[in-house]
Amino acid sequence: MNVSQMAPLLTGIIAALIALVGYWITQHQKRRERRAEVFASALEAIREYEQTPYLIRRREGPDATTRARISERLSASAARRRYYEAVLCLDSPLVAESYKVLLQRTRRQVGPYRSEAWKQPVIVRDEEFPGSAYYPYDSEEEWDLCLLAMRSELSAFAALRRRGTRRRLAALVASRTS
Predict the structure, then answer these.
(1) What is the pLDDT of residue 132?
(2) Cα four-point dihedral sign 69, 44, 35, 98
(3) Cα–Cα–Cα angle for 57, 116, 53, nearest 5°?
(4) Which of 3, 85, 127, 168 has its CA 20 to 30 A from that of 175?
(5) Distance between CA atoms of 39 and 112, rounded to whole angstroms?
(6) Could you give the angle at the alpha carbon of 169 between the alpha carbons of 112 and 151, nearest 5°?
(7) Pairwise CA distance, residues 115 & 10, whole Å
(8) Average pLDDT, integer, range 144-157
(9) Would you say 62 and 122 are in contact if contact means Cβ atoms under 8 Å apart?
(10) How do residues 57-111 score in pLDDT, each as one tens digit?
């Protein structure tokens, strides 16, 4: 094969490689966008869960219809959280584990707040509206770690970042259990 025959062949190979790299980059970006949307929706499900004491506290009446409507919303919220737990488990075990740690921490705090909200009397007048009702959550470390795991997984170098994230998750779990 002489030089005049090699030039078109090399040009074709280079063009094919450029097309493959472009395709890989485009697919990575699309996959990253889809994963980012799933991660954001999963976090939104936890924020929605944190709002349940406010939903209960602001209920309209003591009747069975109101309780049924609230119960329906609570069930839908729980189903949504379970769905994201499963999706994240399929997508990334590390993200799923950090999400589970965040969700467990949130559950431990939401439960007492919901019980307290149910014990409060139904709001009858606007003046009774609980603008001062506040349910603080002590889960900032879990949020930060979950976000770190999600950002790491969205990175092009996710495999390189997992070990450090896994160590931080183990340290947080150990510190919260002791």
Answers:
(1) 61
(2) negative
(3) 40
(4) 85
(5) 27
(6) 100
(7) 72
(8) 90
(9) yes
(10) 888 888 889 899 999 999 999 999 999 999 999 999 999 999 999 999 999 999 9
In the predicted structure, residue 130 carries a pLDDT above the cut 70: no
DSSP the chain: --HHHHHHHHHHHHHHHHHHHHHHHHHHHHHHHHHHHHHHHHHHHHHHHHTHHHHHHT-S-SSHHHHHHHHHHHHHHHHHHHHHHHHHHHH-HHHHHHHHHHHHHHHHHHHHHHHHHHHSPPP-SGGG--TT-------HHHHHHHHHHHHHHHSTTHHHHHHHHHHHHHHHHHHHH-
Give the CA angle between residues 170, 175, 177 to the nearest 5°: 95
Q: How far apart are the first and last CA of the chain?
A: 72
- The torsion defined by the Cα of 142, 145, 147 and 149, in degrees rounded to 10, comes to -130
Tell the residue number behind the tokens 């603008």, with chain if given.
Answer: 131
Is residue 77 a contact partner of residue 51, using CB atoms and an 8 Å limit? no
Residue 119 has which token pair?
């014990």
pLDDT, mean of residues 121-143:
82
Return the residue matching tokens 């994963």.
Answer: 35
